[in-house]
Amino acid sequence: MQGAVLYGPRDVRFEERDDPKIIKPTDAVIRIAAACVCGSDLWPYRGIQPTAQPTPMGHEYCGTVQELGRAVKSIKRGQFVIGSFFASDNTCPNCQIGYQSSCQHRELVGGAQAPLLRVPLADGTLVATPDVPSEELIPSLLTLSDVMGTGWFAADAANVKPGSTVAVVGDGAVGLLGVLSAKQMGAERIIAMSRHRSRQKLACDFGATDIVTERGDEGVARIKELTNGIGADSVLECVGTQESMMQAISSTRPGGHVGYVGVPH
Ligand SMILES: [Zn+2]
Predict the structure, then answer these.
(1) What is the predicted ipTM?
(2) Is the distance from CB of 224 to CB of 212 less than 8 angstroms?
(3) If you measure from the C-alpha of residue 40 to the centroid of ligand 1, how many angstroms do you get, rounded to a whole number?
(4) How far is the CA of 220 from the centre of ligand 1 (A)?
(5) Distance from Cα 99 to the centre of ligand 1, integer Å
(6) Taking residues 6-27, what's their average pLDDT?
């Protein structure tokens, strides 16, 4: 099969790779319906993070189960599944309290930008949809592989509750889905920090009530202004820079919560 492989800064090659196979009895091999590029792929792509060896790309994926190891019990061949970027058993103590990304047996899933993908710990990692979804639904389901779950986690970690005032730092996929998650959790006011018109529009579609275009100290001042000088109850940090983290902390009311999911750089 052909797949995307990162060789170094700005050097992505679409080249022949071996078809993945079942290695452990808990594995699955899935046929990819859709995969995408994550913001975190851009760090090594830009050379900010070194690439030690040619690395197959892609950790956001969904598709149809093609082959299963003999120990897999709940996942069936032919099911449409969505998986996380960390394979997890979903049974260890860390998984049991909801931190599957810290599973004691976790394995990083990679190489999804290809027709076939091996997924370890299939029972714990893959979630099957009730039916095979329509084509139109697949891009939305793909977000559940990483960015929607990450945005949801940010809102949950920031203690978003019905009636909360929420500020979201970052207007990438995770930030926008943090807005959507906060809306789903019943936040009353959602302030999205964004400078891009197309993303501002999406943020509003997803439930943002206010847009702040200022950054840094000015952004913090604007959020204080919108919250009677107090700050937001919950702030979602979805960028991962020193500046965005400081902006998030300074925008939070005394006793409020910051949920941070930006990959630190
Ligand atoms: Zn686990």
Answers:
(1) 0.86
(2) no
(3) 23
(4) 38
(5) 8
(6) 97
Q: From the CA of 106, how far away is ligand 1's center (Å)?
A: 7
Please name the residues in contact with 50: beta carbons below 8 A apart, sequence gap of 6 or more: 44
- CA of 107 from ligand 1 middle (Å) equals 10
In angstroms, what is the span from residue 126 Cα to ligand 1's centroid? 13
pLDDT (mean) for 58-81: 98
Q: Are 220 and 245 in contact (CB under 8 A)?
A: no
Domains in the chain, start-ordered, CATH in brackets?
2-145 (3.90.180.10), 149-260 (3.40.50.720)
CA of 80 to the centre of ligand 1 (A): 23
pLDDT band at 265; cut points 50, 70, 90: low
With 70 as the cut, is the pLDDT of residue 258 above it? Answer: yes
**Ligand 1 mean position to 85 CA, how many Å?**
14
Bridge-based pairing state of the strands 86-87 and 80-83: unpaired
DSSP state for residue 23 in the 8-state scheme? -
Give burial (CB, 10 Å; 0-12/13-18/19+) of 21: exposed
Quick: pLDDT tens for 34-68. 999 988 888 899 998 899 999 999 999 999 999 99
Query: What's the CA-to-centroid distance between 56 and ligand 1, angstroms?
Result: 25
Q: Which tens digit of pLDDT belongs to each residue from 155-166?
A: 999 999 999 999
Tokens for 111, please give them: 């190489």
Phi, psi of 107 (to 5 degrees): -140, 135
The helix (run of H) or strand (run of E) holding residue 30 is: strand 28-35
Question: How far is the centre of ligand 1, averaged over its atoms, from the C-alpha of 166 (Å)?
Answer: 31
